[in-house]
Amino acid sequence: MKPEKIEGFRNSLLKWYHKHRRPLPWRMNPTPYRVWISEIMLQQTQVKSAIPYFNRFVKRLPDIASLAQAPVEEILALWSGLGYYSRARNLHKAARKILEYWGGIFPNEYKTVLSLPGIGRYTAGAICSIAFNQPQPVVDGNIRRVIVRLNGIRSYIPEKYFWDRMTEWVPWEKASEFNQAMMELGATICLPAQPLCPRCPVRRYCLAKKQNLQSTIPLTKPRKAIVKVGVVILVIRYRGKVLLTRQDDSFIPGKWGLPVRIVPSGQSPEETAQSLNNKLFGGRLPIESLAVLKHSITHNRISAHIYTGNATGIISELLEAEGRTYWANDLQLDGMLTSSLFRKAVQRCRK
Ligand code: SF4
């Protein structure tokens, strides 16, 4: 876009945004804390799915102090179902740092925000622009698509190009609204498959529209292949409690989980369940197949074979002595099981 057109482009976009923006909960009262939580949630989650999580999270933990002082298990439980749990752990670490160094007041200096755990260039830019109205650029998937269409770009271009354009376009006095307007345009009008060009407020500035190339820009990359995974999960009970194991190297998130193992190729779920039984209980615990649950984690499509069994007193003592297991009651399970797959498995056994 030519420099002399930028002003008109901004005005058209901002006018449209004032009229058509969605009333999202984090846009009401956009404090740095609320903007931060929402931006971290939206990194890998659709707006529609993030809304109930956001509302629940800020109701329970309304500010930096309450987040910093909450047990990590509680934060992970509030995050359960959103996936990518390192995000929740980093929120906790960052809140503790803010409480310790800045008395619980969110820092407003870009470099300081960028230094917080879990905050990269995008999130730092979003917080500083949306909450503090600083002219910092933001670039996400929606904004990249809008930029390549507006500029009619038909080749792969380096990431720097997008940041340079946003740095050039973001206005000093209306950075918050401009950045949100760019995101909103990508999310509601300049859609990936079928952009709604007749309703677009900046169509007269758009080279893709001018050349009728909206459906071929941007170039699409091949999708990541779906991987099918079979796992065996044991729900072992003893006196109303359920056995949890530490899962330091598991692909399922969380510090504690149900005993789980991937079914190797060439092995049946029964054989995998038996070998897990051998490892944990020396093969002495009678277990039975209960159900198969379907679950997705990113591009993995998981078939989870649930087996149940009741432990005896001796087995329970042996496991406790080992120190890598824990017998959790119902209340503890809610806090300790952060994976929604594990929670579903326990739920299924309660039926
Ligand atoms: S005119 Fe169409 S392709 Fe261009 S920015 Fe607007 S919605 Fe996107």
Quote the beta fraction. 5-15%
CATH architecture label name of the largest domain: Orthogonal Bundle
Chain-averaged pLDDT? 91
Structural class call reads alpha+beta
Question: Which geometry do the CA atoms define?
Answer: elongated
Number of strands: 7
Say which molecules are bound, naming each kind only once.
Answer: iron/sulfur cluster
Q: Would you kindly provide a written description of the structure presented here, covering whatever features stand out?
A:
It is elongated, with a radius of gyration of 25 Å. A hairpin with a 2-residue loop joins strand 5 (288-297) and strand 6 (300-310). Strands 1, 2, 3, 4, 5, 6 and 7 form a 7-stranded mixed beta sheet that branches. The model has no long low-confidence stretch (mean pLDDT 91). The protein has helices at 6-20, 32-42, 47-60, 64-69, 72-79, 86-102, 110-114, 121-131, 141-150, 159-169, 175-188, 207-210, 269-281, 313-322, 330-336, 340-350; strands at 227-238, 241-246, 256-257, 260-262, 288-297, 300-310, 325-328. The protein starts with 5 loop residues before the first helix and ends with a helix. Helix 8 (121-131) packs across helix 11 (175-188). The protein is an alpha+beta fold. It has 2 domains: 3-210, Endonuclease III, domain 1; 227-350, Nucleoside Triphosphate Pyrophosphohydrolase, CATH 3.90.79. Bound molecules: iron/sulfur cluster (SF4). Iron/sulfur cluster is lined by residues 146, 149-150, 189-190, 195-197, 200, 202-203, 206, 208-209, 214.
